[in-house]
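--- STAGE predict ---
source: upstream dedup step, 1 unique chain passed
mode: sequence only
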Amino acid sequence: MFAPSPLVRVEGESLAVTQPPTVQVLANGATVIAQRMPGATVNFSLWMGCGSQHELDVHNGMAHFLEHMVFKGNDRVPLGLFEQRVERVGGLTNATTSQEYTQFFVTTAPQDFPEVAPLLMDLVMAPGLAEEEFHRERQVVLEEIRRAQDVPQRRLMQRVLALAFAGLPYARPVLGSAEVVAQITPQAMRAFHQQWYGPERLTAVVVGDLAVERLLEVVVPSVQACQGGDPAPSCPFPNPVCTFLHREELVDDVQQARLVLSWRVPGLTDFNTVCALDALAMILGQGRTARLVWELRHERGWVTGVTVQNMSFVHQGLFWIGVQAPASHLASVLGVIEEHIARLASEPIGAEELAHLRRRVASRFIFANETPAERAGLYGYYQTVLGDISPGLGYPGTVASLQASVLQQTAQTYLTPALMGQVVMRPRS
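--- STAGE serialize ---
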C-alpha cells in the first residue's frame, strides 16, 4: 500500500500538511472533503464504500458491472449527455472498482466544474439501469472478463488470491466470472444499488483551483439531496493471520516461469503494521538498489522481473514476492529469496539503509500526487476505507518513526516459512 500525497512540506524526517482539507459530515451521513490547490483543473471524485467484497457469491462482479451502468444515463441525464458535456469542455471522466470501494471522477477546468459535477452525482446516486442498455453493456463487461483471462500474470495473481483468502470475499475476482455476470438481472442490480449506495457510504471529494467556499457551494447541495438507502450489513472477517501452506504448480502458455510467494498479513485496521510491511516491501524489491532486485537481476542475472508488494485491504492483507525467470533458475532464485527473508528476521536493518528508506518514502509521498486528481485520491481512499484521512496525512511520518527493531519484529512475526504460500507457473514445454 502506497498512498498518494497531500501538499506537504519536509521538515527533517517529518512532514506536515500546509493546507489541510475541509471535511464536512452532512445530516444524511455523507462526507464532503474540499481543498483549494493552485493549478488549472478541478477534480471531483465520488467514492462509494462498496466493492467486490460486499457482493454475494451468486452476484460476484455486480459492483464492477454497476460501475459501467452508472454512465448509461437516467431520466434526467440521458445516455451520452454527461460524456458530451465533459468532452465539450476538454475534461476527463472515468471510474474504477476494487475489493473495498468504487470510485467515479471527473476532471475539468475550474470554470466548467459547476456544470458537470451535479451530473455525475445524479448518475451515481440514481442510475437508470434501463434493460436495453443493461443487456448491451453486459457484453462489454463479459469481453473485459475474457481479456483479463488472456493475461497470464492476471490469471496467476487471481489464483494466488484465491488460495490465500480461500473462503473470504477477497478471494473473488473483482470483475467476477463470466458465468455469474451472465446471470445478473437488472432487478438484482437495483436492489444492490439500493443497499450499498446510500449517502452514509458516500465520500465526495473536490480539489482544485477554486476557493473552498465555491467548491462546497457546488458540491454540497447535490450531496445533501441524496436519500438514505437500505442499511448495509457489516462484513465479518476472521483473524487476519493464518497458516496456509499451499504449494501449487500451474502450466500455462508462457515463455518464462513465474513464482509468487505470499503471506497473509494484517490489513489497514492495523495501520502501524501495514506501514512496517510496506517498508519491508520497499527494502526487498522496490527500486533498482532494493535487495532482491539488485542481487537477482543486476548481480546474478537470474530473473527478468522482481515485484514485492504489501497488498492492503481493510481487514486483511497479502505480502507477496513475484519473480519472472527461466524455469531452470527457479530453485536458485527461491533460495536467494528465502535467505533475504531470513536475514530480515535475524539482522536489524542498518542505520544507512533505514535513513535511505525514510528519504525515499518522503519523496515518493510528495511526488506521487502533484495534481488535484491525485490529491483527491488520498482523501477519498482513506476516508472510504478507514473513515478518517489522518492516517494518510501521517503516512510518511509513521514510516519515518519505524525503528529497526520494529521492522525486524514484523518480519519475524509475519514473514515466516510456516505462513508462506507458493505458486509457480511454468511453460508448457
